[in-house]
Design goal:
By secondary structure, the chain is of the alpha+beta class. The chain is built from six helices and 13 strands. The N and C termini lie far apart (50 Å).
Length: 247
């Protein structure tokens, strides 16, 4: 039987958070992510992981306080469900999702939702996997879709209107980011240095509050790229990938 751990204020300092395990360059990002989780636990944030050394976890919280430009009432929002490497194909993803569904029902929620895409993109779930459990498309923006599993008749969650713009006025390369992902901090610093060395203008906009998160002008889970005023992708960039993208 698989053993799982839910992060709490009591155990979070001694437990790893799955991503960037053992990579010193991402330690600041890991610390920032843990601080973010600590601040969100009071909102009902759940980070549940397999008690093993690997990237195997599910992360979700009430949609009202979730840092995403999506609105709804009495739903849970799944930020991420990740089962990587040798742990795939062992029913762990099924157990994690079923836990989240049952936990949501026990809390009296009307449903649970998550972000996917028509074609696989970073930081979006596997659409077919969720559809297998009865999730259905309830809203969409370009290639991105909001899937929801309703437990009862209720108001369906939807993307905020500002997220549908997928554009900004600034023509310079602009990156929206938050500490939701431990990989982010290192790449922001790397890109900042790269921009200085090459005399390139990159605007960084940190999402550090619920209000900012609900008003991002695009699809957003932890990172979003804009160039010449238009949304480019939600792929976390390093110096090399930035250079390739610009070229």
């Amino acid at each position: 039987m698989n053993e799982y751990i839910n992060l709490t204020l009591e155990n979070i300092e001694k437990e790893h958070i799955c991503c960037a395990i053992g990579d010193p360059k991402h330690q600041v990002g890991v610390d920032n992510k843990k601080e973010w989780i600590k601040s969100k636990l009071k909102d009902g944030h759940v980070f549940r992981k397999l008690n093993a050394r690997g990237k195997i976890f599910i992360e979700y919280e009430p949609i009202e306080t979730a840092w995403i430009p999506i609105s709804g009432k009495n739903y849970e929002y799944i930020y991420c469900l990740w089962v990587a490497g040798s742990f795939k194909g062992k029913g762990i993803g099924k157990e994690l999702l079923e836990y989240a569904i049952n936990d949501s029902k026990e809390k009296g929620k009307s449903g649970i939702c998550t972000l996917v895409s028509k074609k696989k993109k970073p930081f979006s779930g596997e659409k077919k996997f969720f559809e297998h459990y009865g999730f259905k498309v309830v809203d969409s923006i370009v290639d991105y879709e909001l899937l929801a599993l309703q437990f009862e008749d209720s108001e369906i969650p939807k993307f905020n209107e500002i997220a549908r713009t997928m554009k900004i006025d600034n023509q310079d390369f602009t990156i929206y980011y938050s500490n939701e992902c431990p990989y982010v901090e290192y790449e922001v610093n790397e890109l900042t240095e790269y921009a200085k060395e090459n005399n390139i203008k990159i605007n960084f906009i940190k999402i550090d509050s619920l209000e900012k998160a609900k008003n991002v002008p695009c699809i957003f889970n932890n990172w979003a790229n804009f160039y010449k005023g238009k949304f480019v992708s939600n792929t976390i960039l390093n110096a090399n990938s930035f250079k390739k993208l610009i070229e």
